[in-house]
Amino acid sequence: MVRTGATLTDESLVGQPITLTNCDREPIHIPGLIQPYGFLLCLDPRTHRVVQASANTDQLLGLAAETLIGQDLTFLFTEERLQELSTQWFTLDENQRLQGVRLDQLATQPYFKLIQHRFDDLLWLEFEPVQDLTVGPLDMPSLNEALGQMLGATSVKEFCQHAVRQVSSITGFDRVMLYRFAEDESGEVVAEACRPDMEPFLGLHYPATDIPQQARAMYLRNWLRFIADVNYAAVPLVPVRTPSTGRPPDMTYATLRSVSPIHVEYLKNMGVQASMSISLIQDGKLWGLLMCHHESPRLVSYELRDLCQFIGKTFSSLLKSKEQAEIFAYQLHLRETQARLFALMAELPDFRRALYEHTPTVLDAFECGGVAVCFDGERALLGATPNPAQLNELINWLHTNVPEEVFYTSSYARHNTAGVQIRAVASGILAISLDRQHRDYIIWFRPEVLQQVTWAGKQQKQEESRNGEIVLSPRQSFAAWSQSVENTSEAWRPIEIEAAQELRLRVADMRLKMFSEMEARAAVLSRLNTELERSNEELDSFAYVASHDLKEPLRGIHNYSLFLLEDYADKLDEEGVEKLRTLIRLSQRMENLIESLLQLSRVGRLEAELRPVSVQAVLAEVTDILQVRLQETNTTLVVEGELPVVLADEVRLREVFNNLLTNAMRYNDKPDRYVWVGVAPDGLLSPRGPVPATFRTLYVRDNGIGIDPKHHENIFRIFKRLHGPNKYGGGTGAGLAIVKKMIEKMGGQIWVDSVAGQGSTFYFSVPTPE
Predict the structure, then answer these.
(1) Measured between alpha carbons, how far is 735 from 731 in angstroms, rounded to an integer?
(2) Which residues lie across from 700 on neighbouring strands?
(3) What is the pTM of this model?
(4) Is 669 helix (H, G, I), strand (E, B) or coil?
(5) Backbone angles phi, psi at 128, to 5 degrees
(6) How far apart are CA 242 and CA 532, in angstroms?
(7) 310-335 as b/e, with b when 16 or more CB fall inside 10 Å?
(8) Using alpha carbons only, what angle is made at residue 648 by residues 647 and 652, rounded to the nearest 5 degrees?
(9) Are 125 and 117 in contact (CB under 8 A)?
(10) 527-568, pLDDT tens digit by residue?
């Protein structure tokens, strides 16, 4: 017994029949046979004389293999050429070296491709006849473009597809597949390029037993294997065993090495007549294979095979960076979602509600089916989750059996038999403990994935009758079948576990901060009340000054300017008259600004008196007040549907409608102006997420000039105008700021949906009566 890589092989099987009962021990590295599309000479590295020769030299050279043993290569080359070759032999290793040669000493002087390497204390000289290529000349610009595509691939899937397309283009094989190994060494076809009329193998899975361990070990050492015709008759070496070792030579790096008869039969059962495979290696492990199949014999030149090996090595060298980039992209998505969630937690008065009431929620944190937030005796369920009784059982199980702060599994049923009952929604569990004593958890659920794993043919080895005896053979049918994996979800990724731990720490910090703030708030409550009383007095003083001390002189300036204009206009030139008119406009504008400040101050100081109010009645009052203005501006007011009863401050709600309707008439340049008022449908998303179910959302829509989206937030700021002071009838720029303050005092929010030139829709939410 000898070890090849990490796999035991049995040298006693050399020359013995290979079946499915012993193929896992077949010494494939020492078959003592070659494929017949070339011939082989093994030389002693010291004497440079032939030690072994393939038996087909008689057909290819007219020289029997037995007559070549012990000779130097003067029967093939001139002394001068032989001297050139022998100089190279001292620098050879297991890596193959190609050159073209002419066999000058033969009568026909044929040309051959000579592939040389040194291994197992032998010089290996493999000769392939020069003949017309089966594919066209290498297109370097196309190869350069293809490699550029591989470099630019943004995902592993795209990267694999570029690789199979390039190998298909180079070789002309009917089918080229990229076969990726899983952790259990089974494989899946993840990329494919094949003739349009062929049945695709993309997505098919194959069991690990398809590729024995000794073959996998060889694939790590020799990057490329090629079979020109599966129906070949293997050519033995003469002698089969190396005289110095007493065993066949190790053909791990030989191009012409004959392959396992089991593998040949396997290919025949697939209808494959020619084959090539290229190893894909990552961190010293076999990651996958590039598999090439052809439905007729195909001799691909060594140069093109070598180029395909270059593609495989390039793929292998870039693979880790592509996988890392894909992981980083998902990690970036997780981080961005988490950052938005943390921002909401910091912004909202009760950070707990940010976990499930606004977008994004903890449901968006990972790819999952549902989530349960169990916090301070309250529970919020999002997505597909177990029912309350099942959730109680799960929480009790976590409390009793899981001391860790983070617990995750892709098969909860393997830990707890009760998990079978909830596998449809919760085969996979990711739970973070917020407070084990009070059984506070956030739990994410992943549903059972009845992974219909498609395998090419049955996994079990089949039996068939040969000459009346039952023997094992490779799978005769490649009809797909499915193997279901029960009670199992998609696995949780390490970066998801890390993100869950980070969320747990952030919630713990916010919770601690909340408790600390509550204590601090209780300690300084009296001081805050005192400061609040003083602030209210200062605001009252400001209101008094604004309404009396400032407005009175401004009114005097305004009136005296009017008197001057009336009495002395004929004594002033045109420039003086215009300056007086400007003074009148400025004084009037300043008085309006002070009035707006006063109104804003009142809104901020006074608490809203909420009571049930009929929106229909309030709108009717505002419409009556604005009736003349509606007629003057040719504006039609349309009430869409029945307006509800809401919980609001009637005076402030009236002001809101008055301001929004006035703006709708003012900022409109259409000859026929329209304003629509109605109730928005449930489930409407505001900038802060879904509007709570205890609120109704009203809207005021117009067909006016619209608002560019970049200004949607600015318009609610005090004294922020998008137009000149005299355009569209003037205005102080304080109206929407006052409306926003009024809506917020009633517990709601206001936002706009608008595009320049296409009208505007102002939405505002108000609470509903219990």
Answers:
(1) 8
(2) 677, 762
(3) 0.58
(4) coil
(5) -115, 130
(6) 102
(7) ebbbebbebbeebeeebeeeebeebe
(8) 170
(9) no
(10) 655 665 565 555 555 555 555 556 566 666 767 677 677 777
